[in-house]
């Protein structure tokens, strides 16, 4: 069993903390590896607070005391290795940029995994499993992600469509019913045309699930938001981590549906047997 995410607990509780306790949280977030070797007096001195404030901070995030907090922090660090930042250099060799792409992707997936709200996943699975039909809305790279998700739902016997044109999205949204579901996918969370389509879908009574950065306009407007926070690229060709993070979350939803929708597993087995006839035995 994985230890609980103590970093996420700090980030979640930070706004409800006292000002002095936030100073402790901010120092730890910037110096997490150093803190596991500190005494309580050392941390209090570095954060410019009193020792009782450190104790109150630990209790605010669900720890019994400072030693219990250090154990939780050390476990989190051990299970969350740091990967190299994804930035290209003009002199990068093939080996260097190959490893940078892999490292950046693993880091992005780890961040999304550690921050994802499981309750939002459960609600999304329930909505999608019961939907009469599912409409995916997205633009650019998000449209490609939506197409992959549509294929997943097709295999799960759920009627689904993908629309990446704003006019078609508008017509689709105005044609929806209350038992339909929209999945709005956005890596920026700020696309105006997508916001307009979401409003139209909601006016039709259809619930909207958004895959977008937390706190973004699209995430706020949606009926159910699954936050996907991935660092923005630096202007080079670097959309891969964000795209794969969105695809991973959509795969999670597909797995959830396959376990909650009656008859799906048998249907998937039938499909797999049927596909065997289309595959060559050459090279086996």
Can I get a quick summary?
This is MurR/RpiR family transcriptional regulator. With 284 residues, the protein is of the alpha/beta class.
Protein described:
Pfam families: HTH_6, SIS. Residues 4-80 form the HTH rpiR-type domain. Keywords: DNA-binding, Transcription, Transcription regulation. Helices cover 58% and strands 8% of the residues. It is built from 14 helices and 5 strands. It is globular, with a radius of gyration of 23 Å.
Please state the overall shape, judged from the principal axes of the Cα atoms. globular
What fraction strand? 5-15%
Helix content: 55-70%
- Rg for CA atoms: 23 Å
Q: What is the end-to-end distance?
A: 38 Å
Protein structure class? alpha/beta
Mean pLDDT: 87
Number of strands: 5
> Could you give the order of the helices and strands?
HHHHHHHHEHEHEHEHEHH
Number of helices, where a helix is a run of at least 4 consecutive DSSP H or I residues = 14
Low-confidence stretches: none
Query: Main β-sheet: number of strands, strand sense, barrel status?
Result: 5 strands, parallel
């Amino acid at each position: 069993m994985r230890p609980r995410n103590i970093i996420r607990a700090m980030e979640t509780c930070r706004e409800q903390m006292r000002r002095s306790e936030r100073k402790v949280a901010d120092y730890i977030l910037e110096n997490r590896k150093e803190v596991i070797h500190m005494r309580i007096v050392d941390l209090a001195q570095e954060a410019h607070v009193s020792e009782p404030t450190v104790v109150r901070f630990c209790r605010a995030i669900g720890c019994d005391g400072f030693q219990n907090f250090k154990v939780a922090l050390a476990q989190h660090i051990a299970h969350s290795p740091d990967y190299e930042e994804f930035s290209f250099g003009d002199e990068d060799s093939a080996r260097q940029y190959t490893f940078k792409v892999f490292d950046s992707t693993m880091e992005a997936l780890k961040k999304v995994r550690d921050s994802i709200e499981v309750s939002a996943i459960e609600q999304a699975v329930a909505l999608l499993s019961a939907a009469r039909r599912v409409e995916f809305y997205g633009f650019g790279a998000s449209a490609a992600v939506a197409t992959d998700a549509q294929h997943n739902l097709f295999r799960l016997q759920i009627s689904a469509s993908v629309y990446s044109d704003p006019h078609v999205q508008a017509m689709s949204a105005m044609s929806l019913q209350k038992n339909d579901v929209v999945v709005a996918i956005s890596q920026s969370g700020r696309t105006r045309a997508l916001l307009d389509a979401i409003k139209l879908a909601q006016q039709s009574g259809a619930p909207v699930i958004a895959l977008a950065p937390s706190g973004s306009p699209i995430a706020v407007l949606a009926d159910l938001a699954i936050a996907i926070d991935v660092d923005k690229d630096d202007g080079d060709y670097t959309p891969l981590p964000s795209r794969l993070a969105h695809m991973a979350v959509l795969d999670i939803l597909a797995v959830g549906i396959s376990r909650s929708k009656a008859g799906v597993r048998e249907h998937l087995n039938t499909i797999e047997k049927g596909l065997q006839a289309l595959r060559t035995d050459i090279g086996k």
